[in-house]
Amino acid sequence: MTKNNKFEIQNIIEKILQKHNVDPCAESYYLKLRKRNYDDLVIEKEGEQILVGHYYHHPSGDLISDPVLAFGYNHGYWYPVRIELALGDTICSFVENGRRMIYPARIKEFKSFQRMFARNIRDQKWLENGVRIT
Predict the structure, then answer these.
(1) What is the DSSP code string of 3-42?
(2) What is the Cα 17 distance to its own chain's centre?
(3) How far, in Å, CA of 79 to CA of 83, rounded?
């Protein structure tokens, strides 16, 4: 978490969205960025779910996500839901009977993973050099 109580990845992704004139608080959006030598970076929101991740085309023609971070959205803040990897998903939280249930050990893993992912996005200069596809 950062000084503004947001995840590191939320901070960098919101800067990318703003650069491409996408309102991070909108009900829904879809932004796909491309950079040479990297898998496409996709940022999308539908209602209260946000997905941030890389996608590549499998030789079979399927579109594969690896990795993708899924967040819930509540009043401008993102919270961990799952990590999607080609080898399987890690569920960090879910809603049961109207209450959010969490797996504390998985939340810790998620926080570490999102920090690394945010650092990679910054180091790979997606903010400066990502080209909008859609």
Answers:
(1) TTSS-HHHHHHHHHHHHTT--TTSSEEEEEEE-TTSPEEE
(2) 12
(3) 12
In this structure, are strands 93-96 and 99-102 parallel, antiparallel, or unpaired? antiparallel
- pLDDT of 12 strictly over 90: yes
73 in Cβ contact with 48 (< 8 Å): yes
Tokens of 19: 């650069």
Task: Match 């839901």 to its residue by tokens.
Answer: 81
What's the rounded Cα separation, in Å, for the pair 81 and 71? 5
- Taking the C-alpha atoms of residue 30 and residue 32, their distance in angstroms, rounded to an integer, is 7
Q: Look at residue 31 in the predicted model and tell me its pLDDT.
A: 97
The CA-CA-CA angle for residues 33, 35, 39, to 5°, reads: 80
